[in-house]
Amino acid sequence: MYMRYCCAILKEGGGEGCAVITGVRRDESRKRAAYMPVQRRRRTKSGAETKDLDQMEAANFECVSGKDKFMIYPILDWTEADVWAFLAERNLPRNPCYDNGHRVGCMFCPFASKKQKDYYTNRYPKFHTTLIAHLQRYLDKQDPSRRNFTTAEEYFAWWKSKENINTYRAKKRQLNINFDEMKSSKKGDML
Ligand code: SF4
To answer: C-alpha 148: how far from its chain's center?
Structure first.
């Protein structure tokens, strides 16, 4: 499951009536490259509407009524190297999660690399155990004849690998064929 179903709920909600200061940078993505240093964002029925300050009219300033939030991006034009240099110059600690990749999102973010997911698996074993238990419950509700995975561990290993499900199925089928061939050739040896 690689859909970005969660950002709107976990990260983008809230902050109405406030100024929200975040460390996003233009060089992180094409979408962020188009950001302005200060923007107004308002949740509408059809989604979030974002306007740059210079597109706004005085009448639109409704922050005081709690409908808008002002997004402020103070390091929008910094590069990744600027960030590390800033921390090094001031001897500030770095988030250890960056040792596993240049991107840090939520734990087990679908967009994290396998290395990052492995890091969280080892670093937070209780969280991992809970996740596996939930996955197993989910699997147990499925019709066994239609399941791609036998166990939650197998399911989780596939999810961490980011492999396409059809490629995974094809590999699994091939493994089963090889295994069956091995079994029947062993039987033949014993006759
Ligand atoms: S960082 Fe990843 S898990 Fe967190 S909200 Fe964004 S897409 Fe979802």
So the answer is: 23
